[in-house]
Design a protein that fits this description.
Number of domains: 1
Shape: rod-shaped
Strand order of the largest sheet: 1-2-4-3
Radius of gyration: 52 Å
CATH topology: Gyrase A, domain 2
Order of helices and strands: HEEHEE
Number of helices: 2
Amino acid sequence: MIKINLLLREKKKKAGVSKEIVVAIAAVLILVALLGLVQWKMTSDIESTQKEIAKTQEQIKFYEAQIAKASKAQKEKELLEEKLRVINDLRRQKSSSARVLDEISMQKPEKLQLESMRKDGTKLGIEGIALDDETVANFMTSLRRSKLFKSVDLVVSEQIEQSKIKLKKFTLSCEITPM
């Protein structure tokens, strides 16, 4: 007769089930540990990224302030350059007017008297009285020879009488050459 010990098999079966439970519990614990490690790594990455973002935002604010200062300085520079340009233009016009007056006084004949001059940009109007037409013509010719004037034209010439002397009243128009 053969005897089969079934109890041993049940013990082995119980031992196998408990080993499987231990392995399952160990696998779950290892999985939870891995998930915890991944969660910790992701949290630390998020924190470091947020710190970098905050640092970058601070740098942006700093550079925006620097840009604002630079643009303000640029505007001030442009304003000063404009003022300097105006001053230089005024200096040129000042010396231009002085040169025009000097040149006219040098070219003016003795028999001619100037009454007024009007300057409008590069145009110059001259009014005066001369003894005769020849004096006016000589004055115009000498102005044309000057390098300072061009397009010297007689606008009006009329005879007037002052103290019973017949004189010529004239108006000239000329253009001042740029210096």
